[in-house]
Design brief:
Elements: H1 25-33, H2 52-64, H3 68-77, E1 84-86, H4 112-119, H5 124-130, H6 140-144, E2 152-154, H7 156-168, H8 176-182, E3 187-189, E4 199-201
Helix pairs in contact: 4-5
């Protein structure tokens, strides 16, 4: 539960990740096993945006004997006819659109996350995005790696196809009772340790939360959920 609702305390690595480390599953799992949490697990929340793939994927591997990508392919991608991979086959590389990094405007007001990233080299915000073994998200070797948090590759139609049974709660992908259970919050915080704004999680899902006061501006306000 702590892994699924982002209370595990391991959203980034304090230990320096070796070059290419993000692409080496066993190395990353060993790193996590020896890493000191940022907080006592279960007591606080911080979005594990980079590490959740290894945390969940290794549980899956130890229970099922299959890698995260193999399990996903056998249980979801093939049965539902999805163009969706965690570990992309080489034959599909040329279909992938490159990621274009965000280029902030001088007029953009920095978020609290961006401020922490810029001002504190030891912050989890900086470490989560820079202590990555210098991996290149547009490299073909990255496409092939099973990066569960940041490496799933799909198209919009397949993503919609995967999530539709959950949105409709039709009992197809998961039972109705399970979807209802996953729709209920089990950890809500006024300030998420990583994102630095309020978050609301169930096991595996970020739920609706009122962030209007956080993002108010001249153009009004909006809600993330």
């Amino acid at each position: 539960e702590m892994i699924l609702n982002h209370t595990a305390g391991l959203p980034a690595f304090k230990t320096e990740v070796i070059g290419g480390g993000f692409l080496d599953w066993d190395y990353m799992v060993q790193l996590i096993e020896n890493e000191k949490p940022f907080w006592e697990p279960g007591k606080e929340t911080g979005y594990h945006m980079m590490t959740t793939g290894w945390l969940i994927g290794e549980v899956i591997r130890r229970v099922s004997g299959k890698s995260l990508g193999e399990f996903f392919n056998n249980e979801l991608a093939k049965p539902y006819g999805l163009n969706y991979w965690i570990g992309l086959p080489e034959s599909k590389h040329e279909r992938v659109a490159e990621i274009i990094p965000y280029d902030p405007s001088p007029d953009d007001k920095p978020s609290d996350f961006a401020t922490a990233f810029r001002n504190d080299s030891n912050s989890m915000q900086r470490l989560s995005l820079t202590n990555t073994g210098r991996y290149d998200y547009n490299a073909k070797k990255t496409y092939r790696a099973e990066l569960g948090a940041i490496g799933g590759i799909t198209d919009a139609r397949s993503l919609a196809k995967l999530l539709t049974p959950l949105a409709q709660n039709n009992g197809d992908l998961l039972s109705r009772n399970t979807v209802n259970e996953l729709s209920n919050s089990n950890i809500k915080t006024p300030i998420d340790n990583m994102l630095l704004f309020p978050t609301n999680f169930s096991n595996g899902f970020m739920l609706n939360m009122d962030n209007r006061s956080t993002f108010e501006g001249e153009g009004g306000s909006f809600m993330i959920g």
